[in-house]
Design brief:
- The protein is an alpha/beta fold and 141 residues long.
- It has one domain.
- Helices cover 28% and strands 24% of the residues.
- It has a six-stranded mixed sheet with strand order 1-2-3-6-5-4, sandwiched between helices.
- The radius of gyration is 14 Å and the shape is globular.
Amino acid sequence: MNQSQLDEFRREVNHNLACGALSDYDLPVTGSDGGCPVVVALEEEALSTVLGRLRAVGGFANLFVRGDGRVRMASVIQEASALVDSPDDMSSSTDARPGPSATIGMFLDWVEQCPSGVKISAALGHPARARDAKLVELTGV
């Protein structure tokens, strides 16, 4: 991972949330304090690294991930907040789920294929689900 690229992406997301393409967008994940936690990542980063960032902000966040020519956003929400039951479970043994060496990009590919989201409770230490992975457009800084 290139820290300067991650820092640049973080600034770009912050700019877009403050006065850019996402300034009028209501972020789907809101913390108990009323804030909207944001975690950014680069697509090639290890899933375990990004899960650590999610744990550091309380386990629930609006996740922005930059890949080749695209930015995707996903919601990491409390399991009780989810309106749809039966998410795929990351801890279950299935060949479709990302393995221990997975990147956050691979994980979002999987989340995109799971309309009910992906249960990641074991990875975060509390009932949580990743869902609604989608492309977002950002404007330049």
